[in-house]
Design a protein that fits this description.
Radius of gyration: 17 Å
Strand order of the largest sheet: 3-4-5-6-7-8-9
Number of helices: 6
Cofactor: Mg(2+)
Helix content: 25-40%
Shape: globular
CATH class of the largest domain: Alpha Beta
Protein name: Myo-inositol-1(Or 4)-monophosphatase
Pfam families: Inositol_P
Strand content: 25-35%
CATH architecture of the largest domain: 2-Layer Sandwich
Structural class: alpha+beta
CATH topology of the largest domain: Fructose-1,6-Bisphosphatase, Chain A, domain 1
Family: Belongs to the inositol monophosphatase superfamily.
Distance between the termini: 36 Å
Organism: Ruegeria halocynthiae
Length: 266
């Protein structure tokens, strides 16, 4: 089932790319969501409408969780559920950047079993099915072999270095870099381009579900900020941050994080 679901997700991601790239980011209609939840554009809504229609038609017994669809408790009774971010990095899309992605996943009993992350303007398609490894444009990928946290390049927003997150109030001495799409950050770690990523704020499931499987199938470790495995299709679809890296770098990050640290925006 994961392999057939993956084929479905890949086809849907490519179709999403065709729809999204018909819009010119800075000229696309844009609205701000209530309560400071960020922007949404007409491209997000058009992609979401296609995905919801086509994916649910193909798998009518699967539940549905998407950033751009009003949530329903119906999904909680389903064995499998789609977890979808029609455009991850909407702000970047609206600014005319190329670093936004479509993030599509299937979770079964809380575990992601098939996933695709597609950046149409960079022609990058990351994909994974449980037990089948991870790929980029069809070629196998693997996390980096970095073993020293002090030499690692970690994808993270600057607030993640706030002393309140770290034991003794001191962040580790790693090189911090940044990319705007959370899904893309996770895919880049899976690819071995960077040694790890972390976000220490509460994180929406749709931002990270696809990246979780792709990264794990690429040989990495992906947990919440407390070191617990990520589980999806929760009643409140938000997780306690994400820490993802190769085995040694993940262990180094986890050892330095304060389990009682402040959950500030990061």
């Amino acid at each position: 089932m994961p392999a057939t679901d993956l084929s479905l997700l890949i086809d849907a991601a490519r179709e999403a790319g065709k729809i999204a790239t018909r819009y010119s980011g800075p000229q696309a209609q844009r609205w701000e969501k209530p309560e400071g939840a960020g922007p949404v554009t007409e491209a997000d809504l058009a992609v979401n409408a296609m995905l919801e229609r086509d994916l649910q038609a193909a798998r009518p017994n699967y539940g549905w969780l998407s950033e751009e669809t009003e949530d329903s408790p119906d999904r909680l009774s389903r064995e499998r559920v789609f977890v979808i971010d029609p455009i991850d990095g909407t702000r970047s899309f609206a600014e005319g950047s190329r670093t936004w992605a479509h993030s599509l996943a299937v979770a079964e009993h809380g575990e992601v079993t098939a996933a695709a992350i597609y950046l149409p303007q960079r022609d990058l398609l990351y994909a994974a099915a449980k037990g089948h490894g991870a790929t980029l444009n069809g070629a196998d990928i693997h996390v980096s072999g970095q073993v020293h946290l002090s030499e690692a390049e970690i994808l993270a927003a600057k607030p993640n270095l706030d002393p309140r997150h770290w034991l003794s109030g001191v962040a580790p001495d790693f090189r911090r870099v940044y990319r705007p799409s959370l899904a893309y950050r996770m895919a880049l770690v899976a690819q071995g381009r960077f040694d790890g990523m972390l976000t220490l704020r509460p994180s929406w499931e749709w931002d990270i579900a696809a990246g979780d499987l792709i990264l794990r199938e690429a040989g990495g470790i992906c947990t919440d900020r407390l070191g617990q495995p990520l589980r999806f299709n929760n009643p409140h679809p938000r997780l306690n941050g994400v820490v993802a890296a190769g085995v040694e770098v993940h262990a180094g990050l986890h050892a330095r994080l304060d389990p009682n640290g402040a959950g500030i925006l990061a």
